[in-house]
Predict the 3D structure of the following.
Amino acid sequence: MPALGLYLHVPFCASTCDYCAFYQTEPTAEGVRGFLAGASREAELVAWDRPVDTVFWGGGTPGMLAPRALAELGEMVLRHSGGQPAEWSVELAPASVTPQRLAALKAVGVTRISMGVQSFQPGLLEALGRRHTRRQALQAYAAVRAAGFASVNIDLIFAIPGQTLDEWRADLDEAVRLAPDHLSTYCLTFEEDTALFVRLSEGRVCPDADQEAAYYTEAWERLGAAGYAQYEISNFAHPGHECIHNLNTWRMAEWIGLGPSAASQQAGWRGANVPDLARWQVDVGQGRRAGADRVQLTPRVLAEDSLIFGLRMNEGVDLPALRARHPEAPWERIGALGDRLTEEGLAVLEQGRLRLTLRGRLLADAVGGEILAAFS
């Protein structure tokens, strides 16, 4: 059986960052109570056919919940997961970190904290609409370390409007100085229905592809020299600290999604919950879940996604193994695409495994578009 993950979307945020398009809402006492009850009710609707290997809580920020609510959610997970998950990750915003919340998470068995620092530069935090300060980020990191979690991750963002390469180097150096077990470095994207997208549409900001490439390579070189192994385009870790939940997701394993807007991939289908707290509560109250954007996971769909996400990982894609799993996929076209990528210097093919080169990783989104075209 493939690995089974559990993703829980906690939709609460005090305010919306200028770049964020994830579903979120401001917390109220009534809203939190409804969320806790809804998550428990939705878990009862799931066919738990085997133990859960990994758990990931995202948002929003789970840290908006009080310690008692975090403990209640954790106990609900343990009731359904068939034992203590091997890896349990929770995203926290620096301003939400308190000793009490950390203690509650540690008590239920959380192993990994992922903290959305994004930048240590005050001006860049303001440009992103973040609500924490550099000092809060450093204090939160120290508190998480002191709590003794097995893995700690820091998220950083680059290609922020107004950011210089020297500022990006400074953020990387500060992160390396803190020595987290894992680092995620994301290129800023302009998602619709965000404040940054409005600025883009008005011409007040303009992405620069050459500058983005320079930021990418700076991170890859600097973090590699500091002892972090890149295992996916945006993710670096010390040995043994890779995010297994994400790896399993990119490898097209199965996962259960709980909470408004959470997606699930299980039993041959992929679908998502409605991105609205009140409507989601109505759905689960009437026995419905994962009803939006439903896609049957045919061999064609799984092969396509395995290639798109697999090529973002440094390990690449084992083409013979993928063909054995999904022989019905359009393998003549896949083979032709692999040949073209290698001829153009975007990939290498060694013993049946296709991997992107450095140049290919810089053009991974374009490669993804090529894969979509090959399957169309």
Remarks:
- The first strand starts at residue 4 and ends at 10.
- The chain is about 45% helix and 20% strand.
- Residues 299 and 326 are 5 Å apart (CA to CA).
